[in-house]
Amino acid sequence: MQEVTEKKEFTPNIVAFCCNWCSYAGADLAGSSRLTYPANVKIIRVPCSCRVNPTFVLKAFQQGADGVILCGCHPGDCHYVTGNYYTRRRMALLFSFLNYMGIEKERTRVEWVSAAEGAKFSEVMNDFVKTVTALGENKRLTDLRVKEGK
Amino acid sequence: MRDIELKMIERAKALLESGEVARVVGWKKGEFYFDPMPAVFETVEELNDFVYNSFCGANLSKYLIKVSKNPGKTAIFLKPCDSFSLNQLFKEHRVIRENIYVIAIECQGKLSVEKMKKLGVSAITEVNENGEEIVVSSLYGETKFSRDEVLLGKCETCKSKVHQVKDEEIILREMQAGKKDRFEDVEKLEAMSEEERFTFWREQLSKCIRCNACRNVCPACSCMKCVFDNPASGIAAKANDDKFEEQLFHIIRAFHVAGRCTDCGECSRVCPQGIPLHLLNRKFIKDIDGLYGEYQAGETAEGKTPLTSYNEEDGEPSDVFKGEEK
Asked: Under an 8 Å CB criterion, which residues of B touch A?
Protein backbone atom coordinates (compact mmCIF):
# COMPACT_ATOMS: atom_id res chain seq x y z
CA MET A 1 0.00 0.00 0.00
CA GLN A 2 1.26 3.32 -0.89
CA GLU A 3 0.96 5.93 1.78
CA VAL A 4 -0.58 9.08 0.53
CA THR A 5 0.46 12.15 2.39
CA GLU A 6 -1.51 15.09 1.36
CA LYS A 7 0.67 18.12 1.24
CA LYS A 8 -1.35 21.23 1.72
CA GLU A 9 0.14 24.28 0.19
CA PHE A 10 0.89 27.04 2.63
CA THR A 11 -1.11 30.18 2.05
CA PRO A 12 0.05 33.05 4.16
CA ASN A 13 -2.15 35.56 5.90
CA ILE A 14 -1.18 39.02 4.76
CA VAL A 15 -2.41 42.21 6.31
CA ALA A 16 -2.13 45.32 4.17
CA PHE A 17 -2.72 48.71 5.71
CA CYS A 18 -3.73 51.02 2.88
CA CYS A 19 -4.19 54.74 3.12
CA ASN A 20 -7.58 55.97 2.09
CA TRP A 21 -6.36 58.55 -0.42
CA CYS A 22 -3.77 56.74 -2.49
CA SER A 23 -3.22 53.06 -1.94
CA TYR A 24 -6.81 52.10 -1.22
CA ALA A 25 -7.81 53.85 -4.42
CA GLY A 26 -4.88 52.11 -6.07
CA ALA A 27 -6.30 48.77 -4.98
CA ASP A 28 -9.64 49.84 -6.38
CA LEU A 29 -8.04 50.70 -9.68
CA ALA A 30 -6.30 47.34 -9.74
CA GLY A 31 -9.73 45.76 -9.34
CA SER A 32 -11.46 47.80 -12.00
CA SER A 33 -8.53 47.22 -14.35
CA ARG A 34 -8.99 43.48 -13.79
CA LEU A 35 -5.50 43.07 -12.42
CA THR A 36 -5.30 40.32 -9.88
CA TYR A 37 -3.68 40.14 -6.52
CA PRO A 38 -3.82 37.15 -4.16
CA ALA A 39 -6.99 36.77 -2.13
CA ASN A 40 -5.08 36.19 1.10
CA VAL A 41 -4.16 39.85 1.25
CA LYS A 42 -6.51 41.43 3.76
CA ILE A 43 -6.76 45.14 3.23
CA ILE A 44 -7.40 47.43 6.16
CA ARG A 45 -8.27 50.95 5.18
CA VAL A 46 -6.71 53.68 7.28
CA PRO A 47 -7.14 57.46 6.90
CA CYS A 48 -3.40 57.89 6.41
CA SER A 49 -0.41 55.57 6.60
CA CYS A 50 0.57 57.67 9.59
CA ARG A 51 -2.49 56.33 11.40
CA VAL A 52 -0.83 52.97 11.71
CA ASN A 53 0.33 52.66 15.27
CA PRO A 54 3.25 50.23 15.59
CA THR A 55 0.99 48.27 17.92
CA PHE A 56 -1.31 47.58 14.96
CA VAL A 57 1.52 45.85 13.19
CA LEU A 58 2.37 43.82 16.27
CA LYS A 59 -1.26 43.00 16.87
CA ALA A 60 -1.60 41.75 13.31
CA PHE A 61 1.34 39.41 13.82
CA GLN A 62 0.01 38.35 17.18
CA GLN A 63 -3.33 37.45 15.68
CA GLY A 64 -1.80 35.26 13.04
CA ALA A 65 -0.57 37.41 10.19
CA ASP A 66 2.44 36.04 8.36
CA GLY A 67 3.33 39.34 6.79
CA VAL A 68 2.35 42.97 7.20
CA ILE A 69 2.61 45.57 4.49
CA LEU A 70 1.93 49.27 4.73
CA CYS A 71 0.92 51.24 1.68
CA GLY A 72 0.65 55.00 1.54
CA CYS A 73 0.92 57.97 -0.76
CA HIS A 74 4.35 58.71 -2.17
CA PRO A 75 6.40 60.92 0.13
CA GLY A 76 5.52 64.49 -0.72
CA ASP A 77 2.04 63.53 -1.96
CA CYS A 78 0.41 62.86 1.40
CA HIS A 79 -3.19 64.03 1.59
CA TYR A 80 -2.32 65.49 4.98
CA VAL A 81 0.93 66.90 3.63
CA THR A 82 3.37 65.35 6.09
CA GLY A 83 1.79 62.15 7.44
CA ASN A 84 3.82 59.66 5.49
CA TYR A 85 7.12 61.30 6.41
CA TYR A 86 6.42 60.28 9.99
CA THR A 87 5.36 56.81 8.88
CA ARG A 88 8.63 56.44 7.07
CA ARG A 89 10.74 57.11 10.15
CA ARG A 90 8.52 55.15 12.46
CA MET A 91 8.38 52.04 10.33
CA ALA A 92 12.07 52.15 9.45
CA LEU A 93 12.84 52.01 13.17
CA LEU A 94 10.17 49.44 13.96
CA PHE A 95 11.15 47.05 11.19
CA SER A 96 14.80 47.34 12.01
CA PHE A 97 13.97 46.65 15.63
CA LEU A 98 11.80 43.64 14.84
CA ASN A 99 14.65 42.25 12.83
CA TYR A 100 16.95 42.86 15.80
CA MET A 101 14.56 40.71 17.83
CA GLY A 102 14.95 37.98 15.26
CA ILE A 103 11.83 38.48 13.15
CA GLU A 104 12.55 37.88 9.47
CA LYS A 105 12.91 41.21 7.75
CA GLU A 106 11.01 40.03 4.67
CA ARG A 107 7.79 39.85 6.67
CA THR A 108 7.45 43.59 6.94
CA ARG A 109 7.36 46.10 4.13
CA VAL A 110 6.40 49.64 3.26
CA GLU A 111 5.44 50.58 -0.28
CA TRP A 112 4.25 53.85 -1.72
CA VAL A 113 1.35 53.30 -4.12
CA SER A 114 -0.57 56.19 -5.61
CA ALA A 115 -4.21 56.14 -6.70
CA ALA A 116 -3.07 55.87 -10.31
CA GLU A 117 -0.83 52.88 -9.71
CA GLY A 118 -3.24 49.97 -9.86
CA ALA A 119 -0.68 47.93 -11.73
CA LYS A 120 1.95 48.64 -9.10
CA PHE A 121 -0.45 47.63 -6.36
CA SER A 122 -1.10 44.27 -7.91
CA GLU A 123 2.59 43.77 -8.62
CA VAL A 124 3.62 44.66 -5.07
CA MET A 125 1.05 42.37 -3.51
CA ASN A 126 1.93 39.45 -5.74
CA ASP A 127 5.57 39.90 -4.96
CA PHE A 128 5.02 40.27 -1.21
CA VAL A 129 2.82 37.17 -1.03
CA LYS A 130 5.44 35.25 -2.96
CA THR A 131 8.18 36.34 -0.57
CA VAL A 132 6.18 35.49 2.53
CA THR A 133 5.05 32.16 1.11
CA ALA A 134 8.68 31.25 0.57
CA LEU A 135 9.43 32.20 4.18
CA GLY A 136 6.69 30.04 5.58
CA GLU A 137 4.57 30.49 8.62
CA ASN A 138 5.28 33.23 11.12
CA LYS A 139 6.16 31.49 14.32
CA ARG A 140 8.31 34.04 16.00
CA LEU A 141 5.94 36.85 16.71
CA THR A 142 2.61 35.27 17.20
CA ASP A 143 0.24 33.98 19.78
CA LEU A 144 0.50 30.27 19.10
CA ARG A 145 -3.00 29.73 20.45
CA VAL A 146 -4.40 31.62 17.47
CA LYS A 147 -2.97 29.08 15.08
CA GLU A 148 -3.67 25.92 17.00
CA GLY A 149 -7.14 25.45 15.60
CA LYS A 150 -5.93 25.71 12.03
CA MET B 1 32.40 59.81 49.21
CA ARG B 2 31.69 60.78 52.79
CA ASP B 3 32.94 64.35 52.24
CA ILE B 4 30.43 64.88 49.42
CA GLU B 5 27.67 63.40 51.51
CA LEU B 6 28.36 65.83 54.34
CA LYS B 7 28.38 68.77 51.95
CA MET B 8 25.10 67.60 50.45
CA ILE B 9 23.45 67.33 53.84
CA GLU B 10 24.77 70.74 54.82
CA ARG B 11 23.40 72.27 51.62
CA ALA B 12 20.05 70.52 51.96
CA LYS B 13 19.76 71.77 55.51
CA ALA B 14 20.49 75.34 54.49
CA LEU B 15 17.98 75.22 51.67
CA LEU B 16 15.24 73.80 53.85
CA GLU B 17 15.94 76.11 56.77
CA SER B 18 15.92 79.25 54.68
CA GLY B 19 12.64 78.17 53.13
CA GLU B 20 14.12 78.52 49.65
CA VAL B 21 12.82 75.08 48.82
CA ALA B 22 9.93 73.16 50.31
CA ARG B 23 11.52 69.76 49.91
CA VAL B 24 14.66 67.99 48.85
CA VAL B 25 14.79 64.84 46.78
CA GLY B 26 17.68 62.55 47.62
CA TRP B 27 18.46 59.10 48.98
CA LYS B 28 17.77 57.78 52.44
CA LYS B 29 19.13 54.91 54.43
CA GLY B 30 17.66 51.57 53.57
CA GLU B 31 17.60 48.50 55.70
CA PHE B 32 21.23 47.80 54.86
CA TYR B 33 24.20 49.86 53.81
CA PHE B 34 23.87 48.70 50.22
CA ASP B 35 20.22 49.55 49.63
CA PRO B 36 19.71 53.29 49.93
CA MET B 37 16.40 54.38 48.43
CA PRO B 38 15.04 57.51 46.83
CA ALA B 39 13.29 59.75 49.33
CA VAL B 40 11.75 63.17 49.75
CA PHE B 41 12.93 65.23 52.73
CA GLU B 42 10.64 67.98 53.96
CA THR B 43 12.16 68.83 57.34
CA VAL B 44 15.66 69.23 58.68
CA GLU B 45 15.07 66.35 61.11
CA GLU B 46 14.35 63.97 58.27
CA LEU B 47 17.78 64.71 56.86
CA ASN B 48 19.29 62.53 59.59
CA ASP B 49 18.51 59.60 57.33
CA PHE B 50 20.06 61.20 54.24
CA VAL B 51 22.77 59.16 52.54
CA TYR B 52 24.89 59.39 49.45
CA ASN B 53 27.13 56.40 48.97
CA SER B 54 28.45 54.09 46.28
CA PHE B 55 25.10 52.36 45.91
CA CYS B 56 23.02 55.43 45.10
CA GLY B 57 22.52 54.34 41.51
CA ALA B 58 18.84 55.24 41.38
CA ASN B 59 17.80 57.98 38.99
CA LEU B 60 15.76 60.51 40.97
CA SER B 61 14.39 62.56 38.07
CA LYS B 62 11.16 60.66 37.69
CA TYR B 63 10.08 61.37 41.26
CA LEU B 64 9.82 65.05 40.37
CA ILE B 65 6.78 64.48 38.17
CA LYS B 66 4.68 63.82 41.21
CA VAL B 67 6.55 65.67 43.92
CA SER B 68 7.03 68.96 42.09
CA LYS B 69 3.28 69.41 41.69
CA ASN B 70 3.09 70.28 45.39
CA PRO B 71 3.43 73.96 46.28
CA GLY B 72 6.91 75.39 46.71
CA LYS B 73 10.23 74.69 45.04
CA THR B 74 11.83 71.26 45.00
CA ALA B 75 15.56 70.76 45.25
CA ILE B 76 17.03 67.63 43.73
CA PHE B 77 20.45 66.03 43.74
CA LEU B 78 21.38 64.81 40.29
CA LYS B 79 24.21 62.71 38.99
CA PRO B 80 25.29 63.58 35.43
CA CYS B 81 23.26 60.81 33.79
CA ASP B 82 20.13 61.72 35.77
CA SER B 83 20.33 65.28 34.50
CA PHE B 84 19.65 64.02 30.96
CA SER B 85 16.42 62.45 32.15
CA LEU B 86 15.33 65.61 33.91
CA ASN B 87 16.00 67.68 30.81
CA GLN B 88 13.86 65.29 28.80
CA LEU B 89 11.07 65.70 31.35
CA PHE B 90 11.35 69.48 31.02
CA LYS B 91 11.09 69.10 27.28
CA GLU B 92 7.94 67.04 27.58
CA HIS B 93 6.45 69.54 30.05
CA ARG B 94 6.11 66.89 32.70
CA VAL B 95 8.16 68.99 35.10
CA ILE B 96 8.33 72.79 35.15
CA ARG B 97 11.87 74.15 35.24
CA GLU B 98 11.00 77.10 37.52
CA ASN B 99 9.83 74.77 40.27
CA ILE B 100 13.08 72.85 40.45
CA TYR B 101 16.42 73.63 42.02
CA VAL B 102 19.08 71.31 40.65
CA ILE B 103 22.18 70.49 42.63
CA ALA B 104 24.69 68.70 40.45
CA ILE B 105 26.70 66.13 42.36
CA GLU B 106 29.83 64.18 41.72
CA CYS B 107 29.58 60.58 40.55
CA GLN B 108 32.53 58.31 39.88
CA GLY B 109 30.27 55.54 38.71
CA LYS B 110 28.05 53.63 41.08
CA LEU B 111 28.75 50.13 42.32
CA SER B 112 26.78 46.95 41.99
CA VAL B 113 26.03 44.96 45.10
CA GLU B 114 25.07 42.03 42.87
CA LYS B 115 28.54 41.92 41.37
CA MET B 116 30.11 42.03 44.82
CA LYS B 117 27.90 39.19 45.95
CA LYS B 118 28.94 37.19 42.93
CA LEU B 119 32.55 37.80 43.86
CA GLY B 120 31.83 36.32 47.26
CA VAL B 121 31.30 39.36 49.45
CA SER B 122 28.05 39.63 51.35
CA ALA B 123 26.76 41.43 54.45
CA ILE B 124 28.42 44.65 53.37
CA THR B 125 28.64 47.29 56.06
CA GLU B 126 30.69 49.97 54.39
CA VAL B 127 32.42 50.84 51.14
CA ASN B 128 35.32 53.24 50.76
CA GLU B 129 36.50 54.46 47.39
CA ASN B 130 40.14 55.38 46.98
CA GLY B 131 40.30 56.25 43.32
CA GLU B 132 40.29 52.98 41.38
CA GLU B 133 40.50 50.89 44.51
CA ILE B 134 37.30 49.92 46.27
CA VAL B 135 37.57 48.77 49.86
CA VAL B 136 34.54 46.82 50.97
CA SER B 137 34.01 46.12 54.65
CA SER B 138 31.59 43.39 55.55
CA LEU B 139 30.69 41.43 58.65
CA TYR B 140 33.32 38.94 57.55
CA GLY B 141 36.19 41.32 57.07
CA GLU B 142 37.64 43.57 54.42
CA THR B 143 37.95 42.94 50.68
CA LYS B 144 39.56 45.04 47.98
CA PHE B 145 38.24 45.30 44.42
CA SER B 146 39.21 47.36 41.44
CA ARG B 147 36.49 49.75 40.37
CA ASP B 148 35.98 48.02 37.00
CA GLU B 149 35.20 44.74 38.72
CA VAL B 150 32.20 45.99 40.66
CA LEU B 151 30.91 48.89 38.58
CA LEU B 152 27.18 48.92 37.82
CA GLY B 153 26.43 47.73 34.29
CA LYS B 154 25.03 51.08 33.31
CA CYS B 155 28.10 52.91 34.57
CA GLU B 156 30.54 50.84 32.52
CA THR B 157 29.32 52.61 29.43
CA CYS B 158 28.71 55.98 31.09
CA LYS B 159 28.01 58.43 28.28
CA SER B 160 28.89 61.69 29.97
CA LYS B 161 30.04 63.22 33.19
CA VAL B 162 28.75 66.65 32.25
CA HIS B 163 25.55 67.81 33.90
CA GLN B 164 23.04 68.96 31.31
CA VAL B 165 21.15 71.12 33.75
CA LYS B 166 22.19 72.56 37.11
CA ASP B 167 21.78 75.50 39.45
CA GLU B 168 24.81 74.75 41.56
CA GLU B 169 27.25 71.90 41.96
CA ILE B 170 28.98 69.82 44.60
CA ILE B 171 31.88 68.30 42.73
CA LEU B 172 35.15 67.75 44.54
CA ARG B 173 37.05 65.45 42.22
CA GLU B 174 37.38 65.10 38.50
CA MET B 175 35.01 62.58 36.90
CA GLN B 176 35.69 60.19 34.03
CA ALA B 177 33.25 58.89 31.46
CA GLY B 178 32.90 55.15 30.86
CA LYS B 179 35.60 53.11 29.20
CA LYS B 180 33.35 50.81 27.23
CA ASP B 181 31.65 51.69 23.96
CA ARG B 182 27.93 51.58 24.60
CA PHE B 183 27.04 50.12 21.23
CA GLU B 184 29.47 47.25 21.49
CA ASP B 185 26.89 44.74 22.68
CA VAL B 186 24.28 45.92 20.19
CA GLU B 187 26.75 45.38 17.37
CA LYS B 188 27.50 41.92 18.64
CA LEU B 189 23.82 41.06 18.41
CA GLU B 190 23.49 42.65 14.99
CA ALA B 191 26.27 40.44 13.72
CA MET B 192 24.29 37.32 14.64
CA SER B 193 21.84 35.61 12.33
CA GLU B 194 18.11 36.19 12.70
CA GLU B 195 17.74 32.75 14.18
CA GLU B 196 20.44 33.36 16.78
CA ARG B 197 19.04 36.71 17.71
CA PHE B 198 15.60 35.23 18.11
CA THR B 199 16.94 32.52 20.36
CA PHE B 200 18.87 35.05 22.39
CA TRP B 201 15.88 37.30 23.00
CA ARG B 202 13.48 34.44 23.55
CA GLU B 203 15.83 33.14 26.20
CA GLN B 204 16.24 36.52 27.84
CA LEU B 205 12.66 37.68 27.64
CA SER B 206 11.13 34.44 28.79
CA LYS B 207 12.71 35.20 32.15
CA CYS B 208 10.45 38.22 32.41
CA ILE B 209 7.95 37.98 35.24
CA ARG B 210 6.12 41.16 34.25
CA CYS B 211 6.78 42.86 37.53
CA ASN B 212 6.73 46.13 35.56
CA ALA B 213 9.79 47.39 37.41
CA CYS B 214 11.38 48.54 34.16
CA ARG B 215 8.31 50.54 33.27
CA ASN B 216 7.90 52.03 36.70
CA VAL B 217 11.49 53.14 37.07
CA CYS B 218 11.90 54.55 33.57
CA PRO B 219 11.82 58.36 33.47
CA ALA B 220 10.68 58.25 29.84
CA CYS B 221 7.88 55.79 30.64
CA SER B 222 5.74 58.26 32.48
CA CYS B 223 2.42 58.42 30.64
CA MET B 224 -0.45 59.17 32.97
CA LYS B 225 -2.32 56.32 31.39
CA CYS B 226 -0.11 53.49 30.31
CA VAL B 227 -1.15 51.36 27.36
CA PHE B 228 -0.43 48.24 29.39
CA ASP B 229 -3.01 49.24 31.97
CA ASN B 230 -5.66 49.12 29.30
CA PRO B 231 -7.37 45.73 29.43
CA ALA B 232 -8.23 45.96 25.73
CA SER B 233 -4.62 46.38 24.62
CA GLY B 234 -4.17 42.64 24.26
CA ILE B 235 -1.08 42.75 26.41
CA ALA B 236 -2.00 42.08 30.00
CA ALA B 237 -0.68 44.44 32.62
CA LYS B 238 0.55 41.67 34.83
CA ALA B 239 1.19 37.98 34.34
CA ASN B 240 1.41 36.60 30.83
CA ASP B 241 -1.02 34.29 29.18
CA ASP B 242 1.55 33.09 26.77
CA LYS B 243 5.21 33.49 26.02
CA PHE B 244 4.69 35.83 23.12
CA GLU B 245 3.48 38.53 25.47
CA GLU B 246 6.84 39.27 27.01
CA GLN B 247 8.13 39.83 23.57
CA LEU B 248 5.30 42.19 22.70
CA PHE B 249 5.52 44.00 26.00
CA HIS B 250 9.18 44.74 25.54
CA ILE B 251 8.88 45.68 21.88
CA ILE B 252 6.09 48.11 22.64
CA ARG B 253 7.83 49.57 25.64
CA ALA B 254 11.05 50.06 23.74
CA PHE B 255 9.20 51.71 20.89
CA HIS B 256 7.33 54.04 23.20
CA VAL B 257 10.55 55.42 24.58
CA ALA B 258 12.37 55.47 21.24
CA GLY B 259 13.88 58.88 20.63
CA ARG B 260 13.13 59.84 24.23
CA CYS B 261 15.24 57.30 26.05
CA THR B 262 18.33 58.99 27.47
CA ASP B 263 20.02 55.64 28.00
CA CYS B 264 20.18 56.03 31.76
CA GLY B 265 20.21 52.25 32.11
CA GLU B 266 17.77 52.09 34.99
CA CYS B 267 15.65 49.39 33.31
CA SER B 268 18.48 46.88 33.40
CA ARG B 269 19.57 47.91 36.87
CA VAL B 270 16.19 47.25 38.45
CA CYS B 271 15.30 44.11 36.50
CA PRO B 272 15.08 41.36 39.11
CA GLN B 273 15.65 38.77 36.39
CA GLY B 274 18.75 40.40 34.98
CA ILE B 275 17.41 40.90 31.47
CA PRO B 276 19.66 43.27 29.48
CA LEU B 277 16.80 45.61 28.64
CA HIS B 278 19.07 48.51 27.80
CA LEU B 279 20.11 46.61 24.68
CA LEU B 280 16.61 47.11 23.31
CA ASN B 281 16.66 50.84 23.84
CA ARG B 282 20.19 51.16 22.57
CA LYS B 283 19.23 49.56 19.28
CA PHE B 284 16.79 52.41 18.71
CA ILE B 285 19.39 54.97 19.73
CA LYS B 286 21.91 53.42 17.38
CA ASP B 287 19.44 53.32 14.48
CA ILE B 288 18.36 56.90 15.05
CA ASP B 289 21.97 58.05 15.19
CA GLY B 290 22.77 56.20 11.99
CA LEU B 291 19.65 57.09 10.00
CA TYR B 292 18.69 60.56 11.16
CA GLY B 293 21.85 61.99 12.64
CA GLU B 294 23.38 61.84 16.09
CA TYR B 295 20.81 62.53 18.72
CA GLN B 296 21.08 62.37 22.47
CA ALA B 297 17.79 62.67 24.29
CA GLY B 298 17.95 65.04 27.23
CA GLU B 299 20.86 67.05 25.94
CA THR B 300 18.60 70.06 25.62
CA ALA B 301 15.18 70.90 26.95
CA GLU B 302 14.16 72.35 23.57
CA GLY B 303 13.55 71.04 20.07
CA LYS B 304 11.85 67.99 18.65
CA THR B 305 12.66 64.33 19.03
CA PRO B 306 13.59 62.24 15.96
CA LEU B 307 10.20 60.55 15.86
CA THR B 308 8.22 63.76 16.06
CA SER B 309 10.09 65.35 13.22
CA TYR B 310 11.10 64.35 9.71
CA ASN B 311 13.29 65.24 6.84
CA GLU B 312 12.14 65.05 3.24
CA GLU B 313 15.37 63.31 2.33
CA ASP B 314 14.99 60.50 4.88
CA GLY B 315 15.73 57.01 3.62
CA GLU B 316 13.10 54.39 2.90
CA PRO B 317 12.29 51.76 5.55
CA SER B 318 13.82 49.12 3.30
CA ASP B 319 17.13 51.03 3.27
CA VAL B 320 17.71 49.99 6.86
CA PHE B 321 18.68 46.52 5.75
CA LYS B 322 20.86 47.57 2.87
CA GLY B 323 24.49 46.70 3.21
CA GLU B 324 23.89 43.72 5.43
CA GLU B 325 22.72 41.36 2.68
CA LYS B 326 24.75 38.21 2.68
From this structure: 189-190, 194-202, 227, 233-234, 242, 244, 247-248, 251-252, 254-255, 258, 280, 283-284, 287-288, 291-292, 306-308, 310-312, 314-321
